[in-house]
Write a structure and sequence with these properties.
By secondary structure, the protein is an alpha/beta fold. The chain has 17 helices and 19 strands.
Length: 512
Amino acid sequence: MSRPHVVVIGAGVGGLSAAIHLARRGMRVTVVEKNATPGGRLGSYERDGHVFPTGPTLLIMPLLYRSELAALGADLDADLQPQRVDPSYRIVFDDGERLDMTSDLAALSAQLDAMEPGASGGLLRYLDEGRRHYHLGMPRLVERDFRRARDFFRPANAALMFQVHALAPHYRHMSAFFDSPRLRAAFTFQDVYMGLSPFHAPATFSLTPYSELAHGVWYPRGGMTRLTDVLVGLAEEAGVEIVCGEPVQRIEVAGSVAQGVVLADGRLLAADVVLANADLPYVYRDLLPAGPADRLAAAAVSRRRFAGSAISFFWALDRPVPQLGPHTLVLADDYRENFDRIDRNEPLPDLPSVYLHAPARLDPAAAPPGRDTVVAVVPTGHMAYDGRDPARQAREAETWDVARRRAREAVLARLALLGVADVDAHLLHEGTATPLTWRSEHNLVRGATHGLAHTVTQLAYLRPHNRHARYRNLYFAGASTHPGTGVPTALVSGRLAAERIADEQQAAAPAG
């Protein structure tokens, strides 16, 4: 018998993970990627010796990376050569007060007690709860699949929801540990990694700051794109064919079977199985047929809650900026209003929260000698309109141009707070990305950088499944299916999809 041919749409982390697992199980795998290089949102670009990461800038949850890379035949330490970043961040508040998030518990406790007497006791209790959430939630909610309703709706999982405080909003739950709004903010801002507001995220996500402090925040040698290089090498070693610069026009279907994909030039790439690592809402809306059943399914996905987005700036400077460490986070005192505006897709406040990354602190090759590279990220809402009406598209573009200018002013004000002035006078290059950029470069519906949000009603079995309900040989991996957004969870998503494909292909194979 010939080997089943799997076509993977998209060479993001989830797609590459799935491709490697499938090829190692003996299947013939072709990955088609619309962009010129693999990696998806895990990207970077270079300009005159300055290297700008355009996606994730740090490695968190190293235990998950370690186990998933091992399943792919890679070794975290040998292949990524990560260095620990400690303090992981410097947090700066509106009046200049600072908090270094360090794994040195004595040093961190002293800082917290100076901000709120007795806060070190709350820290220990919070970390203990985060430890429980991590060791309960990761194996039972993240690292396993939920193929049938009975896999999820079980008495043990109902109890688990209470054990990991899934029904308690994270920020409100922080009142059990800290009185200071600033400390509550310092241990909940990580929810933005999931594209969520801490005021709506489940308290389960205390597992993230716990992991950062207990397991560390890391930086691979050469930056996060090293992971892409490792995955591409593993894929090629396993016999995967990766074809870049090949946009997919549509998924060809007949009845309830996906027959392959039609490329932009009209060629049909036939397949026994199609696995979409493209944004799931985009696949439902733009790549599947426009029949009544498909339109209903696409409409149901579009009614789900989408995560926020971001406006990013990529600056090459003709001088070093010693005031910046590798990761600096300026948190607005008006923390709730900041996130409420993002949730409501309203204009940014005058002083939003800002993340600043100086990659040359960790990798000198990120900037030429005597210069600096700075990335600034301002969390925002997603696009309000993402349709095809030219007039509304123009208004949406104008809205985000105004937002970009306001965000730039805010970043400059935040840098001034840190003692960094005259940025424009030293600017050699400026790149920007808005939700429109994410939409055009990565086909992310509404420019939502994290896909569908991780609300309680969009987690585990309640998240879109990794197999299409109608087209039984069409599968999904990536941010908007289980287990959700993030680089390490993309590795999990690819593995779970590959395991399901392999199991169902084996079950369908004729006996003997």
